[in-house]
Fold ATP/GTP-binding protein.
Amino acid sequence: MGYGHSDLVRPHIVEPVTLKILVAGGFGVGKTTLVGAVSEIRPLRTEEILTEAGRPVDDIAGVESKTTTTVAMDFGRITLREDLVLYLFGTPGQDRFWFLWDELATGALGAVVLADTRRLEDCFAAIDYFERRDIAFTVAVNCFEGADRYPEDSVRDALDLDPGTPVVLCDARERESAKHVLISVVEHAMLASARG
């Protein structure tokens, strides 16, 4: 029995490039929400209920309705293209969990720093962290209901960012908006890598 040419042709299988992206920012800014909105798998969450014992160390001013907090990380995955998969690692927002950041940052291509204009100072520590480690990042302003909206350049000036650092407005609850943020991070990180 003979084989025709079509029997010998194997389908082209694309091995995707996988990239690690961190999602960081202050307490209650929407990191878990963003990872959950965009992940194509059920996200891994390490959330615990906020308790009265944590009140002295967890400042919930501005996020009084928050009932849980991430204590290790959130994990999700999104395929941006057939050949590009992002692994998302949401960092904990409170200072007492920062010892985890160095481990989570290992091998990261870039990061999202989520910001809330009502508590903009809460993202300074994350910005400093990525600047000191030369990890490319995009600042994503999560547009909460009732929060004042400012132009991207005003946010850039308020955070004293380098002119090349992207600032985007987003709604962390919406998949397409979160996806736009991630694309911005990947593009910025690839450009920074090519320059470096």
Q: What stands out?
A: The mean pLDDT is 83. The longest strand covers residues 68-81. The first helix runs from residue 5 to 8. Helices lie at 5-8, 31-38, 101-105, 124-132, 152-159, 175-195.
